Every structure is written in structure tokens, then in C-alpha cells.
Amino acid sequence: MTVALDDGHCPLEAERDLPLVVDLDGTLILTDTLLESVLLALGRHPVRLVRLLPDALSKRARFKRRLVALAIPDVATLPYDHRLLRLLRQEASVGRRLVLATGADEAIGEAVSRHLGIFSATFGSDGVTNLTGTRKAARLDLELGSGKWLYAGNSRQDLGVWPASAGAVVVNGSPGVAKAARAVSARVLAQIPPPSPGRRAWFRLLRLHQWSKNLLIFVPIILAHRTGSLDAWRLSFLGFLAFGLAASANYVVNDLLDLQADRRHPTKRIRPLASGRIGIIAGIVAILVLAISSVALLLPLPSLARWTLLAYVTVTTAYSLKLKTLLSLDVVTLAMCYVLRLLFGSVVTGIPLSVWTLASAGFFFTSLAFAKRLIELRHSTNNALPVAPGKRRAYFPDDHSQVGAQAAASGFLSILVVALYINSSEVRVLYSRPDMLWLLCPVLIWWLSRLLILASRATIPHDPVSFALRDRASWVTLGLLFLVLLIAK
User: Fold this and answer.
1) Does residue 142 lie in a domain region?
2) Interatomic CA distance for residues 438 and 469, integer angstroms
3) For the chain, what is the domain count?
4) Which of 96, 238, 438, 471 fits as disulfide partner to 91, beta carbons 3.0 to 4.6 Å?
5) Cα–Cα distance measured from residue 480 to residue 207, given in angstroms and rounded to the nearest whole number
6) Which of 312, 285, 329, 74 has its CA nearest to residue 214?
7) 3-state class (DSSP) for residue 100
């Protein structure tokens, strides 16, 4: 009898003396350990990884063995399917023997088996034999007896295993796989449907809320008093979309490279890729779709805009791979990413930015970047901020006073640049009442001081920019700044 198990509460109706063999990738865990190992190796040993690639297709088992020598996922933080785990523990409690059989290298299988402590035997690829499909079925017949075992799997590769089993359990299989399993297996004992990520998971993956940072692209229009130019707004809007798509692609890249660290983080572990709600392949496809769409939107824009966006992508990729682990250079890089948004808006519209704007923006965003690190340090209970294995950020909890001081110094330098600009000759060209602009300084001082104090108190959850977007006082500050600019105009 087939039982649909949405929560894993019903034990299997089959002979208790038959062992239940469980696949790993996509079945017991909501990810693929081969792809996870590749991503880990890409971050740690990219050159050595490239040297392994010729074996990826022709000598699969050898590739897996050499790959785990470079990088192996942390099995304690893998996204296990807890519905299946509940079922397995129920089956073990009534005396059924559990066996783990995976196409992953046996080193990964054994690590998972030791971590869970519920399997009596573990089989995996051994560097010579890639244990998938019919090869897995033959090994299980040899070890457990011909046709004297049940098998839980999820993919089309498992269609070569189910016919040799005494019964099938379909876990996270697509409708096509589930239908094919019923056709090739003597009996399908249970089916656990794949979890649906939903639109919210995709929105979270693409970080659509972070597109608010790209509103900086429109700043050159406002500062140059070109708000009446429809062509400037049209070009900026196209640039905004292109930049947002490219930025979302980079966020997905960052999540793929930070899977291990995110799973150890108290809040980031629920991110769609880290939690397994969205698969690695789906994430890679999303990167390609986003990148192609961004390039298509860039075609009508000036060529310099493409180079500026490429510079942003290069900087953010370097940040994800290495720069985030380097003391203070990570902060400088984050500030550069914000300034590049301003420059992108400038080259898209052809509106130049003054040196005053660039200098003030550079100091201001450096302050926010230091504030972000301050918030993380104040929330951190470990010796260092969590990052991918083999990497380590150079900040420790005791650094919070120094980081806070640098955040304050950078922020007040940005306000000083604003004050110098107000006293310059250039300001009188754009404003009829330039003396009114001095009101900007106390408003900015109030906002920055308040933000830094809240950051030091650890009352800001994570990102100061995201906090500011939801903070009523920040919106009041923005309104006051615009009011001052209107009065001065």
C-alpha cells in the first residue's frame, strides 16, 4: 500500500526484517554534496579544482575521491529532510535495520552516518566505482541479499535501483520520477513530496529588498537639479533594472560560496540555499538568467555603463571570494560598492558627479560599512565572525570600540565635506539661498549619532541600511533634508 507522508509520521507497512536503504543527495538531505564540495573547493583551492575537471565526466568516482581531499561539507550543518529523519527513527524504533547507500564518496557517507548514528552500514563511491543506478543495486544485492531490501531515493538515477528492491520509498521526487518509480517497482510503500520553496523564498534569494540601495543611481539627477528631464529618468530606470538584476545574481553567487558559514549563523541558516528550500542547480540557473537579462537591458545604455557595472560585479565577486576576510579592506570594498552605484547613475545619464559628492559619499558609506561590522561584533558570541571553512574574518568581539570609533570618524568626515561644499563657490550656482544649506549639518549629525549609538547597543538587527529603511526617524531625517534643499533652491 502506498502511503503519502507529508510529515513522516506513518511507519512503513513492510516486513520488519527487510533493511531500509536510504540515498543521501536529494533524499536524506535537501542538497547535493558533490556540488557543495565543488563550491567549497572553488573558494579554497580554485586552481587545484580546475585540474580535477577532466575527471568529472570520464572518471566520476575518481573525481569525487580527489574532490573530497580538497573540500568536504560540514555534515553537521547539512539541510536534512526532517520528515524523512522522523520516519527513519520510527522505523529504527520498531527494529528495522537502516543502511545509507550514496553515490557520493564514501568519506561523506561515513561522516553523515557517524553524525546521525542511525545507520548500521554505509556504502558509497570508492574512487573506482561510482555507486549509482544499477551499480548501486548490484552492491546492495551482494551485501544484503538479492531483492531483500527496501530503497528510498529521489532521482531518475534511482530508477536503476528500485526494480531490484523489495519496495520503494519516493522522497522529494518530481511527479515524473514518482510515476516512473511506480512503473518499475513491485510496490511503492510511501511517498514524501518535495518541499515547495514558494515565491517568498525566491524573493529572499534574489534580495529584492536590497534593490533599495540601487536608488543611489537616481541621485545624480537630483543633485544636478535635472528632475524635469524625462530622458534622464528613462535612462536611470533602465540602469536601475540592469543593476538590480546584476546585483541579485551576485547575491546568489555570494550565498552559494557562503553555504557553510550561513548554516552556522543564527539567522542566515534559513536562507533559501543554505536551508535547501532552493537547490544549488536552481540557484546557478537563476544566476545565468539574471546575468543575461541584465546584459540585455544594458545594450541601449552608454558603453561606459557596462564597464562600471562590470567593475561592480568584479569587486563584489572578489569580496565574496576573499576580500571579506581581510581586515578593514572588507569595509573599503563595501564602501566602493555604494560609490560605484553613484558612478553608474552618473555614466548612465551623462550627468557628472562633483568631487564633493564623491568625497562625502566615500566617507559616508565607509562609516556605514564600519557600522555594519560593529553591529555584527556586538551580536557575535564567537571568537570571530562566521565565514566559510578555511577563511576567517579578522574582527573579534574586543575590536568593537575601535570599529565604532572608525565608523564615527568616517561619518563625521562626510559631514565635514558637506560643510566645506556649502562654503564653496560651486554651491551658489545651484542654490539661490545657499546659507540655508547649513541646516543640513545638524540634521545629519543627529541621524548619524543616533545610528552609531544604536549600533553600539546592538539594538540594530544586522544591516544599518536595511534598518534605516524601516526606521521612522530615518524617514523623518530624509524628509528634513529634502525640505532644506527645497528651501535653499
Assistant:
1) yes
2) 25
3) 1
4) 96
5) 29
6) 312
7) strand
pLDDT 10s digit of each residue in the chain, 489 long?
344 454 444 567 777 889 999 999 999 999 999 999 999 998 788 889 998 888 888 899 999 999 999 999 999 999 999 999 999 999 999 889 999 999 999 999 999 999 999 999 999 999 999 999 999 999 999 999 998 999 999 999 999 999 999 999 999 998 999 899 989 876 888 899 988 888 889 999 998 888 989 999 999 998 888 888 999 999 999 999 999 999 999 999 989 988 888 898 788 888 999 999 999 999 999 999 999 999 999 999 998 999 999 999 999 888 877 888 888 889 999 999 999 999 999 999 999 998 999 999 999 999 999 999 988 888 775 444 444 444 445 788 788 889 999 999 999 999 999 999 998 888 888 888 888 999 999 999 999 999 999 988 888 877 888 888 888 999 999 999 989 988 988
Q: Is 244 within a domain?
A: no
Residue 165 lies in domain = 3-192
Q: Is residue 159 part of a domain?
A: yes
Tell me how far apart the alpha carbons of residues 102 and 111 are, in angstroms, rounded to a whole number.
12
Answer yes or no: is 235 within a domain. Answer: no
Residue 71 is which amino acid? A
Return d(Cα 6, Cα 209) in angstroms, integer.
32
Phi, psi (rounded to 5 degrees) for 31: -160, 180
CA dist., res. 298 & res. 306, Å (int): 6
Cell numbers that stand for 195 in this block? 518541499
Burial string for 234-270 (b: 16+ CB within 10 Å, else e) reads ebbebbbbbbbbbbbbbbbbbbbbbbbbbbbbeebbe
> Cell match 565635514: residue?
416
Cβ atoms of 440 and 484 within 8 Å: the answer is: yes
* CA distance linking residue 102 with residue 100, whole number of Å: 6
* One-letter amino acid for residue 100 of the chain: L
**Contact predicate 385/266, CB 8 Å:** no
Read off the C-alpha cell for 25. 543527495
H/E segment holding residue 170: strand 167-171
Q: Which helix (H) or strand (E) covers residue 189, if one does? A: strand 188-192
Q: How far is CA 323 from CA 331, 334, 462, 486, in A?
A: 9, 10, 20, 41
Quote the CA–CA distance of 450 and 468 in Å, as a whole number.
11
The pTM is what?
A: 0.81
Name the one residue in this structure whose C-alpha cell is 544636478.
Answer: 224
- CATH number for position 141: 3.40.50.1000
SS3 for 105-133, per residue? Answer: EHHHHHHHHHHHCCCCEEEEECCCCCCCH
Radius of gyration of the chain (CA): 28
Closest by Cα among 394, 285, 270 to 331: 394
Paired sense of beta strands 121-125 and 150-153, if any: unpaired
Contact partners, residue 479, CB within 8 Å, separation at least 6: none
